[in-house]
Amino acid sequence: MTVMAGLATLAGSIGLYPLFEEHGWFAAGLGAVLAVAAGGLLARRLRLPAAFNALFGLLALLAYLNLTYVADAAWLGFIPSPESINRLASLNEAGWQAANRYAAPVPLLPGISLMAAAGIGLVAVLVDLLAVRLRRTAPAGLPLLAMYSVPAAVREDGVSWLAFGVGALGFLGLLMADAREQVGGWGRTVTTHRRQREVPLAGADPRPEEAAARLDAGALAASGRRIAAVAVAVAVLVPAAVPGLQPRGMFDLGGGSGDGTQTVTTPDPLVSLKRELTRLDDSVVLTYRTDDRRAPDYLRLYALDRFDGDRWTYSPLQSSSRDRLTGDELPPPPGLTVASSRRVTTRVEVRPEVKNMTFLPVPYAPSKVSIKGDWRVHGPSLMVYSLRDSAGGRSYTVESRRAEPTTAQLAGAGNYPAEVVAHYTAVPRNIPRQIRDLAQNVTAGSATALAQAVKLQRWFNQSGGFSYDLSAPAPQQGSDLVDFLLHSKRGYCEQFAASMALLARIIGIPSRVAMGYTPGSEVRPGQWVVRSRDAHAWPELYFQGTGWVRFEPTPAGAAGQGTADAPSYSLPQITGGGGPESRSEPAPEASAPAEDDSAEPSAAARNRSDTGPEGAAAAQEGEEDGFSAAPWLAGGLLVLLLMAVPMALRVLTRRRRWAALTAPRGPEDGPRPGRPSQRPPGAASGGRPRTPDPADAAHAAWREMRADALDHGLEWRSSDSPRATARRLGELLELDPEGAGALGRIARAEELARYSLSRSPEPPDRLRADVRTVREAFAASVGRRARLRARLLPPSTMEQTRETLQAATDRVLELATRVNELPSRLRRR
């Protein structure tokens, strides 16, 4: 058990491979597992209480870490000392900072190797305690499973099925070892021979080892191995087919609805952003050529329009076939009606090494996209995506409209439409008061939305005291954003973009967070290269007449995001009385926080709306997800179809049973055993309906009557003869003369077909009518519930299904047994 516990821990640790660039972490984990096993074994040899088992394992792990990482500071090279403990703590701190600074796979720095060894060792301590000392092997699978949660949490592609299968086999081996030791504790196993001993032929050399039959234990062990293999296969394959565990399930079955639409799901875009920014190789993502006379615009992937108080995400995309790219013009960009725009053509080539890029990086706003595959567009945001294809290794052409608004146009933008206000200024009411006050203080004295946006941008990248730092952890909850704005003021583009978009919503400017890539670097005239370090997030603010406009709060250059740049319209001087903001009304105050936590547009946004507060509220209510009957109708239809399956199988079985009587019989069938051929001599048999065999008709009628009796809940005794069955059913049902006659004819026909070579006197059509008569008698003799069950959920169909599954299982087990016996047969030959 000690050996198997260590092997199971090592097998489970294989799932950590996506986290590291090198393989040295496994050697460090192996040493930790061996040390823990030795400590636990010593505690059991000394017969100490269970608590000492974990204590000895931890002490052995600590001694191993001292020997491996700080041997020069430990006593005798492995005994912990105060200095060695402090150095281990410092090394662990450095490893934690490196893990936050780099994206997986991380370099195997000493601190990261220490963390890996300590983590695997702690899992080994728990497994050794539960499985070996406490004999609770099943709960020992929980710490093993915890190791898989780490790569699943930090990498969107998770762990491969092969690594999971190795870990599962290790756990099954631990269970098998535990079961064997528990059975062995009762003493020697008592078994019986599987078959009689074989008697060798005369003159043959007796070989007792081959003549002796194998014991039943061998068959049981083979069955156990087969069950274990099937369990692992099911654990690996079923999650791939379940839409709830995979975005779309196997064969793209998941995520659909009754009206033919599918919900588009992707990993968290902001998690992918941090991974791209911290890649050590800074690999090339794509190259592109553009006819833009000026510096190219950003390449956008996502438009995140929902803020839940913790993170920015995009609203669920309901995709249908109508959204497919067909080479025609895409929907017009929202709000772009006044500002001038120019056409830009961009030819993009994505590197084949890029994986799982299901959203296309395109300049905003795309008007036409030419690409092979099933790609679609989301009209409100103009995101281009695919449900099954990836952009890796593809080339495509994008024609886009690049807006060129002037400062005057942005400053004089009209009121916002009500639907824009309702959706893009909604913030949770539990936003802290100090954040709301901060938004008002930063933008104080600005009379237009443009002036407010420019002040926010300048506060983030100039006057606010913020610094660009890729080592800052990604925000996971609202308090992280508060800490960034009010205290630490350290972060990268995600924090800057998310914070400016939130503050803009608070003061009433519709906003969202965009994510994609900056223009990259120009390698030759008109040709640009985009690398992983060019991944970026930025806020987009809405101005009526221009639509969505990009701003850049993230510091640029050597002290920030290297290839980011602020657009020209976001750089006007907002001090003095001659700015465009002086031509507009003063900015209204922000609304005070309410008591509940629901999200609603801010007061400033409602005042800017041309429909007034009432229209904005109504638009907000219309924007919220309302009741949709389509999913309920689809679910009800699915339930009805599933309920109709047994009934349909019963009807199909009945029809096939009677249709088989007139099916053509080929010449190879020949006459039935013991019966003359029913076909006249010289008659052709190819394709023509044959004359029904009376015996087959009698058997079909008897089977139908038996199925009807079972369906209506009547007792059917297989040991009774046809005559006894008919007599018992007649007494039970109190049939009228017509029903009794029909029952008697069916029983007599079956009796003659079973026990006599003479032909049944009843024609098939008569027997079929008699079966119908008896069925009606059965239905009349039972209650309504039994009649409904006979029609909707016939038990005969369930029994037939069980028999079919049992037969298939028997065949599979027989085949597996033969395969298992093949090596021994080959050895005997």
TrEMBL record:
Keywords of the record: Membrane, Transmembrane, Transmembrane helix
SMART domains on file: TGc (SM00460)
SUPFAM superfamilies, sorted: Cysteine proteinases
Biased composition (Low complexity): 553-567, 600-620
Stretch list, region Disordered: 553-623, 662-698
Keyword Endoplasmic reticulum: no
Top-rank taxon, per record: Bacteria
All residue ranges annotated as the Transglutaminase-like domain in the record: 485-555
InterPro entries, per the entry: Bact_TGase-like, Papain-like_cys_pep_sf, TgpA_N, Transglutaminase-like
TM stretches of this protein: 25-43, 50-71, 108-130, 160-179, 629-649
Membrane in keyword set: yes
Protein's name according to its UniProt entry: DUF3488 and transglutaminase-like domain-containing protein
Organism, as annotated: Actinomadura livida
Lineage, broadest ranks: Bacteria, Bacillati, Actinomycetota, Actinomycetes, Streptosporangiales
